[in-house]
Structure formats: C-alpha cells, structure tokens
Amino acid sequence: MLGVFSSGVVAPPEELVLAGSRSPSPKTTAEALVHRFVRAATPAVSVRVSSDAHFAYSHTNESHLLPRSFAVKDDIFCMFEGILDNLGSLRHQYGLSKTANEVMLVIEAYKALRDRAPFPASHVVGHLSGSFAFVVFDKSTSTLFVASDQYGKVPLYWGITADGYVAFADDAELLKAACGKSLASFPQGCFYSTNLGGLKCYENPKNKVTAIPAPEEEIWGATFKVEGAAVFATTH
C-alpha cells in the first residue's frame, strides 16, 4: 500500500530532511513513485484524492493473515493493512453492523476522534488490538492520521520524495528508490497526526518521540525512538 501527501497537507519531518541532506542519494518524484508502485503491483488501484493526496493499493502478494483494504466514507479515505483481534467489541462500541470490517471501523474511530474533542487520540488508537497499520486522509479538513500497532507486526515506512511529498508504504525498497536516505521505519506503537501535534506514542503519550541519525551503511536515514522505551522501532 502507498499514500503520498504534499507539503500542503503534512510538513516533511525535519529529521528525514536532515538525513537526506547528510547523505545525498538519488530520489524520484511522488508521481514517479506512484507509477512505479502501480507497474510493480499490477493489478493495482490508484486513487488521486486531490493534487495534495494520492493513494495506491494492491492485493498482489498479500498475506491472508494481513489483508489490505481501502474505503471512503464522508470524504474520509482510509487504507488499512492487518487484522483487529477485537473487531467484534469495537463494532459494538462504535455502533457498527456485524459486517463492518477493519477499514470501516478505523474510519468511524477517526470520526469519533475528530468530532468528539477532546477525545484522546491515544485512547482511540490504544483500543485497537491486533496487527495493523493504517493511513487516514480527511479531505474535508486536509488532515492526515497514520498509526502502527504496538509491536510493529505490519511493516510501515515513511520518507520524503524529490518534490517534497511525504510517502507512507509497507515496502521499504519501494520508498528507498524514491526517497533515498530521507527514509525511516515508522515507529511501532505510535501515531502521526497533522492535527494533533505530529508524531506521538499512544502507549506512552507523555514520552517524546525522537529521531537518532542512522549509520551510513543502514538503509534508513534515521531511527525513531520513544524516550524511556527499552526497544527501538523495528526495521523489518
């Protein structure tokens, strides 16, 4: 799965900008990245939400244990990979039918977060149990919300393209070709919100998330770590 967003939606993380500056490497544009994904993952679906946001996804090489799904409701676009172990109880909590799947559940959870302020994001994401990574884009407010499960069971990476778009994908090699060293593994147990202060740990909301420059030989430009946590974000 792939989502790319312009600087009009999300400011490129400074840590990844600096990583790319320290170790300049070839990059491509966001449009070229989407085209490469579509060619490599045929059959694939490409959804341009606006000039600022673009999704692409495919079921090619999908694990039956970690399926991918995509949905749109009320101008909220969501791409989800994985499984929620407590989907049944969450359906009841959000008043959804028994046929609602994970991607629809996440859209409803995001709507609750958006419309019932102050509804803590750490509370919303922390109640999701399972293996997952998702990207939500709210077109009506140009808001981006991204999260990964607490154990990093579903790989998720982010980077900056040559034209300054921030890209999220489950394929590190795909992003490396487009983002060079402006690339990192998205930290497990964390969420990123353009409306709620950037990158935060939902397991330990008071703990700051910092980026540590990676060694030159690493694929990454930086590794994100939750302060006080004993384990680094997995790099798969």
TrEMBL record:
<feature type="domain" description="DUF3700">
    <location>
        <begin position="2"/>
        <end position="226"/>
    </location>
</feature>
<dbReference type="InterPro" id="IPR029055">
    <property type="entry name" value="Ntn_hydrolases_N"/>
</dbReference>
<dbReference type="InterPro" id="IPR024286">
    <property type="entry name" value="DUF3700"/>
</dbReference>
<dbReference type="Pfam" id="PF12481">
    <property type="entry name" value="DUF3700"/>
</dbReference>
<dbReference type="InterPro" id="IPR044828">
    <property type="entry name" value="TSJT1-like"/>
</dbReference>
<protein>
    <submittedName>
        <fullName>Stem-specific protein TSJT1</fullName>
    </submittedName>
</protein>
